[in-house]
Amino acid sequence: MGRRPLGGHPYRLLRRLPQPRRDLVRRWTVLAVMAMETTRIRIGTLVSNPVLRPPTLLAKEALTIDHLSGGRLELGIGTGIEPLDHAAMGLDYWSPGERVARFSEYVEVVDGLLANPSCAYAFEGRFYRTREAAMGPPPVQRPRPPITVGGQSPTVLRVAAERADCWNTAGPLGLGMDEILETTHRQNDQLDEMCVAFERDPTELRRSLFLVGALDAWASHDALEKIVRRFGEIGISEFVLFWPPGERLNLFEHVATEVIPALRTGTLP
Known about the structure:
Order of helices and strands: HHHEHEHHEEEHEHEHEH
Largest sheet: 6 strands, parallel
CATH class of the largest domain: Alpha Beta
Structural class: alpha/beta
Shape: globular
Number of strands: 8
Strand order of the largest sheet: 1-2-5-6-7-8
Oligomer: single chain
CATH topology of the largest domain: TIM Barrel
């Protein structure tokens, strides 16, 4: 819904594939194929993991896909919370403090590189450093491809308000819909205040909700409609859905052809 592309953590996505195909899937390679084989849909990541690639590499990949797609990339960046990623890269698991500190620097570097691709960009931080990093031609989308940051920590909210084009949340996992709604409402208000502090119009920051856990879009015939109505009232304008499980595929056509168009146009009864 909205303009959000489908996404998810790479290891979770891989676990859905038959074993022989898992080793063939690399998300940014797939995005390149999608960019060439589609013409209208927006494509992207939700979210790219700072554990798996340095910020200069992510910026270069993003700039490449932005050009291959003719300006249809949405770049999501997360904090890297999966222990499996650290183990795969031979790293000790980052503490919460290190993770959010890295995240803040990481997004700043990616933002700077994409907004100034033809300049010799330099950054000297605690965790990340780059010198004379010129990416290449300017991006198709100006000033750069839209950046989504995902998470709920105070640092993520601050980075969203300062630098991002969209904030994505799944709400506190393990809680019910009412508790998620209350928390998201409070965080939305905080984001508005932070945007003002950064001399930014709060309406410039899109708000996105990942439908997992208690927010199951496929739980019933009208589940998505109820979620969109309730969270739309507190400022969420984009909703991200997983592909439905096999036993609920019968709902997919109904949601895609009737519910989503009606929600967009406000014509549901």
